[in-house]
Amino acid sequence: MSKSWRILLALFVVLALVASSCGNDDDGAPASEPVEPSDPNIVELGGGAVIDVGECPDEWDNYGGVTDTEIRFGSSLPRSGALAGFGTIADGVGLYFDAVGPIEGRNVVMVARDDGYVPARTVTNVEEMIDVENLLGFAGILGSPNNLAVRDTLNENCIPQLFNLTGLPEWGDPTNYPWTTGALMSYETEARVWCQHIADEIGSGATAAVLALGNDAGEAWRVAFNECAPEHGIEILDEIKHDPQADSVGADVINLAASNADALVVASSGAFCPQAVATVASLPWEPMMLVANGCQSIALFWVPIGPLANGVRMVNTQKDVSDSSLADDEWVQFVRDALEAQGIDPEAASHALGYIFGEVLHEVLLDAAGMDGGINRTNVMRAMWRMDFDSRGALGNSPRRMDGANDSYMVEAGRMEELVVDADGARYLPVSDVISFEGETGTFGN
Q: Is a pLDDT exceeding 80 seen at residue 17?
């Protein structure tokens, strides 16, 4: 063998040995595995949360509810019972889209049914609508127990459950329920603001009584308030959970008045809020009255009892078109003008609230339309969990922002306000600046 061939052979052996030693790490595994293509079934939502469409039913259609002319959503709301004032929110969402026009030539259609705030009726409504209506998903179902009753069904069937009209903290859980999102400030966050406000206004050693809705929503408020109260030197003297189907809470409030607490927390909703406040006004008891944000609408809840509502305080997160102090606000003018042009009294029922959530749904659909594949179920959920825009309907035009499991709550800013009813009308007066927890509330369970 020639010298040159011996040199080449030696080099070959050396290179082979080097390749052999570099091709294994300490545990003997190959140095590099073939790069697998990304799983087409996995849809990233942020913070490690994902949707795996491989787990969806065999008959699942990503473009369900999207036709050449329509984008169809369903909802279940109380059009009867104590919370019937919220029954036209879905109508308001539909009217919002009538005002702003189609998206890529498709009209947004809302199909709503009455459940009377009874969870079993919500289940029946949702199951029937899945079977007989061609829906992309559901938007704006009201009530914590009502949404809990259908959450598993909608997630197992990979059907969007958007804008639950409840602040139950469980809606911020994209890891376990990626098809479900909330629309309101978390009840835990709201309770934190109540505690801070009582401590600021009354001081350490303040006492409180709590009237809580006897369901998942009321329990979430009650538990959160019980957790933050000791941290602020607040003693809770008495608590009552009331029946969600009760005719009145007057007797419960009279019982709570015996505590003579410095503050009354009304962790309830619908007609129960003005009932509680009107009952307090008939008694010698004069507590600071903190009422849940779900009872914000002046026209719906406070005009009927007039000056008896003076002094009510709450954490408001959005603009109320019946608030006389916002008469010149651009958003309020837009909503009032649009509803009046559609033959709707802006202060009747809850159509104006529908515009608040219509604005958010509009942003979600526009974002989804710009994604690969356009408007479909998975893109709508991607757009929802990565939402980031300044809401014209929010107080202070606060952002509506989420990032999957990093930041799972859409509404994280509000302002403590006090209701004033006099000869000049009814309005909220700010008691604080806008308080923002943006990016701080994380995800459910963390």
A: no
Token pair 């079934």: residue: 41
CA 214 to CA 239: how far, in whole Å? 11
Q: How many CB atoms lie within 10 A of CB 132?
A: 9
Residues 221 and 164 in one domain: no
Residues 361 and 401 in one domain: yes
Number of separate domains in the chain: 2
Q: Are residues 61 and 174 in the same domain?
A: yes
323 occurs within a structural domain: no
Containing structural domain, residue 202: 187-316+414-436
Asked if residue 163 and residue 72 are part of one domain, the reply reads: yes
Coil vs helix vs strand at 415: strand
Angle at 419 between CA 208 and CA 415, to 5 degrees: 75
Across 430-444, average pLDDT? 92
Q: Whole-model pTM?
A: 0.88
In 3D space, the residue among 292, 355, 300 whose CA is nearest the CA of residue 329 turns out to be 355
pLDDT surpassing 90 at residue 289: yes
Q: DSSP assignment, residue 224? A: H
Question: Do 131 and 147 fall within a single domain?
Answer: yes
Q: Are 209 and 236 contacting, i.e. CB atoms less than 8 angstroms apart?
A: yes
Helix (H) or strand (E) run with residue 130 in it: helix 119-132
